[in-house]
Amino acid sequence: MNYRIIAFLASISLPALAQQQPQQSTSHLFPPHFIVQQAEAIGLSEEQHKKIREIVESIQTEAAPVQKKVETANREMNELLASDSPEVEEALEKLDELLDAERMMKRAQLEILIKAQGLLTAEQVGQLRQLKTQLIAQQQKNRQELEQRLQQKIRKVQAGMESLSQPGEIPEKVRQLMEKFGALMKQGMHDEAEATLDRAIQILGGETPADPKPQASFSIPKVKIPDPFAAATPVELQEKIEELRVKDVAWRKIEWKTCLLEGLAASQKENKPIVLWMFIDRPIDDKRC
Q: How many Å apart are CA 13 and CA 15, to the nearest integer?
């Protein structure tokens, strides 16, 4: 096979597969969200749950200014290094600020982990270790299965490249797809990466992926609709608005959880998905809702 094709395939496939090597963790602690997710399995009490939430909220509140320092130091460092001739002393000083802020954040994170685990019984800690071991084993199995599938599909790409009618020429569409495949793998977007690889195989096999069928175009005749409120006074408009307002809004009857940890616990206990609603201010007081 042409050297150009060999080099192209090697540059795409090998780095992408290297991303699938499992990372060894040295942590023996459990994140609060993992503890809450396994609340039913380990018999987590309401009191334990409450104290874990209080620990997280307290430390996160204290760490908020530190997180702001990390973001500011990162931005200033990037701006400094983007200049044509950055000052060495200024860059090193900014680096020290960034490292100090990151150290404080890691300290806060470690404090949360230790304090949260300190609320558990020895039996609960043992159960969490078993659950974590099972989870890691399942993740390892999934990685191995993914790697096997990708290796098989990359071999299909290689076979397709070898059978090209003009050896040495790499179709531009295939090149783009394989570069996209490598980028997606590095980002951990495995499903999207595998789908991209499938498209490359289709092209090399003589099958062009079907593009979405164009929608039939049509035009809607413009109709001038009279405005019934054109001559209304502000008071009359407000009365009309109140008439249209729905008095009985379903979402106001829902007992929303204001704490993510409580939501995770309820989801785990009731085996139901979570609806996460992020908002600014208090929507229950917002008359526009």
A: 6
Same domain (yes/no): 122, 242: no
Q: Is the pTM of this model over 0.70?
A: no
Return the structure tokens found at 94.
């900014």
Model confidence over 178-222: pLDDT tens digits?
888 888 888 888 888 889 888 888 888 755 444 444 444 444 444
Alpha helices in the chain (DSSP H): 3-18, 32-37, 39-42, 46-81, 88-118, 122-162, 172-186, 190-204, 234-244, 260-270
In a domain, 37, yes or no: yes
Q: Do residues 199 and 209 make contact, with C-beta atoms less than 8 angstroms apart?
A: yes
Residue for token pair 């413009």 = 222
Integer Cα distance of 51 and 31 in angstroms: 14
As for how many domains the chain has, the answer is 2
Does the residue 220 lie in any domain? no
Pair (60, 152) in one structural domain? yes
Interacting residues of 236 by C-beta distance below 8 A, sequence separation 6+ = 229
One-letter amino acid for residue 49 of the chain: H
